[in-house]
Amino acid sequence: MVLGKDVRLDWVEDFTHKVVVGIFEYISPSRAKVVKWITKQWKPWLRYIPRYITLMKGWVCFHFKSEIDVNHILEGMWSIGKGSLVFSRWHVTFNPLKETIIKRHMWMLLPGFLI
Length: 115
Prior knowledge:
alpha+beta; five-stranded antiparallel sheet
């Protein structure tokens, strides 16, 4: 995303604290499936559906109402269907065509281990 000269700095400041970018790994869910997933996964503590937009190459951008919500998202590990959703903070130089994933989730099955 390229910012123009007329962008208000207070808007950018707010955006950097309340927006996360994520990437769907191994899946391409529909909008309806994403909303259903948000409702199921985040509803216990989040009382609203965050605004979001899908970007190129599987990236998605979520805009939350508070930085507390953003921190909760960044601390969690999120799976959707047979894939995962990896988040990081949005930054001014974010470019979905050039961005790389710096962390991945690893799921392990331990035979005989009961939860």
